Amino acid sequence: MGEDVMRLSIMQPYFFPYLGYFSLIANSDCWIVYDTAQDIKHGWVHRNRILHPTSGWQYISVPRKKHPLDTQIRDVRIAGDEWKSRIRGQIDHYRKKAPYFHVVNGLLSDCFSFETESLSELNSFCLKSVCDLLEITFEPLFASSIAVTNNQGSDACEKVLAFCQWAEATQYVNPPGGAVLYDAARFDKVGVKLVIQDYTPLEYQCPGYEFERGLSILDVLMWNSPDIVKDHLQAGNGC
Length: 239
Fold this sequence. Notes:
The structure is a single chain. By secondary structure, the protein is α/β, with parallel strands linked by helices. It has one domain. It has nine helices and seven strands; from the N terminus they run βαβββαααβαβααβαα. It has helices spanning 19-26, 82-91, 101-112, 119-133, 156-167, 178-181, 184-189, 217-223, 226-234, and strands at residues 7-11, 30-33, 47-51, 57-61, 141-142, 171-174, 193-196. A five-stranded parallel β-sheet has the order 5-2-1-6-7. A two-stranded antiparallel ribbon has the order 3-4. Helix 1 (19-26) links the parallel strand 1 and strand 2 (30-33). The termini are close together.
């Protein structure tokens, strides 16, 4: 990557997201936590998926206090702390089968020790903890603290371009779904290149279970050492 290239990514703070999310972080120079986006009832900010003990997958989730439909992610509050013991119970079936259960268990201990009622703050702390484990630099900025946030139009592309100009980004890196969301020509007009992430999923053995694609990073780390995951992310599985 040339010295004159500055890659920006903007994403909602997901709860222990899939590996592709961390590939995006690893291939970005600047990361903005999009905490001013509206919270979605069935989105990934408060939940993710791990293997079910008998078949398929199950959700792990953080309960949210009731809030209006138009509430921004930064204003979503966590309801209680019983969910921590529930998630620990949900991962217990990995204990005797997954070789790196102890790694994930320790990761969760660190993450669950973080005291906050803010879902955005919790998720950002968890993302940072995973990145530290994988030796990925993660120094996020928050959309809610950036002046351009309240000076944007309603168009999704216009919002992103406002952040790109603020950050002086030369490239905007987005997951594969961005190919249908954004018009590359609009980015070109302001000197920003739209880069769509080229991510290759990591397939792995999980004895006693059937492999499921796109599960939480917690499942990935149950079956693969941090070094294996790090090597996968460094082997061209990015942009």
